[in-house]
Write a structure and sequence with these properties.
Helices cover 26% and strands 25% of the residues. By secondary structure, the protein is an alpha+beta fold. The protein has a domain of 135 residues: RNA Cap, Translation Initiation Factor Eif4e (2-Layer Sandwich). A hairpin with a 4-residue loop joins strand 5 and strand 6.
Length: 195
């Protein structure tokens, strides 16, 4: 099991807050027992203030596009637009357990960086951040991958993420690169992949 770090983004005060001032590292853990101790003592997602976020990332990876381990990556995401009709606490727990249980990717994929839940006025959004956008990677002794293999890996992760979110077959999760989102000036860039 990897060591994971829980982060919290508090809502902006409206006084030109810097993102780094709003983002707080809460605690790191490396066992399921520690996870439950933390989970049972934090505010449930459903009770967080608007514009709050929880981030659960591998230790050493900051939940921001600029982090060296994220800057060439992207994210799978889904927006739950009817906040009253879903149990966001159960869904977020399910996604966190899938991440720490390493059920979202195969052992050698090394793609999943973390998961995030955003609390917004009209919706909840859950995302899964990846190390790459599925590009070809050089490597020695068969450790590299082609673009098609990269796309296949990300698509497989997207399907597992969709399962963790307990979505209907008719619902889709979308993948976009962090660079694309930065250029679009939004966290909602045009999707590269959809499953």
């Amino acid at each position: 099991m990897n060591t994971w770090t829980l982060w919290f983004t508090k809502p902006p005060s409206g006084k030109g807050d810097n993102w780094n001032e709003l983002l707080k590292e809460v605690i790191s853990f490396d066992s399921v027992e520690e996870f439950w101790g933390i989970y049972n003592n934090i505010t449930p997602t459903s009770e967080l203030a608007l514009k709050s976020d929880y981030h659960l990332f591998k230790k050493g990876v900051r939940p921001e596009w600029e982090d060296s381990q994220n800057k060439h990556g992207g994210k799978w995401a889904f927006q739950f637009k009817d906040k009253k009709s879903i149990n966001i606490d159960a869904l977020w727990l399910h996604v966190m357990l899938a991440a720490i249980g390493e059920n979202l990717e195969d052992e050698d994929d090394n793609e999943v960086m973390g998961v995030v839940v955003n609390v917004r006025r009209g919706f909840y959004r859950i995302g899964l951040w990846t190390r790459t956008v599925g590009k070809a990677l050089p490597g020695d002794q068969g450790k590299g991958r082609t673009f098609e293999q990269g796309k296949e890996t990300l698509t497989k992760i997207g399907k597992r993420f969709k399962q963790a979110l307990q979505l209907k077959e008719s619902e889709s999760v979308e993948f976009s690169g962090h660079t694309d989102a930065a250029h679009a000036g939004s966290t909602r860039a045009k999707a590269k992949f959809v499953v």
